[in-house]
Write a structure and sequence with these properties.
This is Putative N(6)-L-threonylcarbamoyladenine synthase. The protein has 68 residues and is α+β, with helices and mostly antiparallel strands. It has 3 helices and 3 strands. The chain has a 3-stranded antiparallel β-sheet, with no helix packed on it. α2 packs across α3 (61-67).
Amino acid sequence: MGRIVTGADDPVVLYVSDSNIQVIAYSEGRYRIFGEIIDIAVGNCLDRFARVLTLSNDPSPGYNIEQA
């Protein structure tokens, strides 16, 4: 996509998706990840925390955490 949009032969791409960020570039014949941050999204964090506390998912984990 970076090549098509910019017309560059070897673009550096910043990929951002939810809580994941990657710096990607073409090097030595293939695409490589030169840096990345992989964090847990807030929703996933609340879901996991509610499971640890054995709270119900009904109506939602976040709501049940607030009530507890």
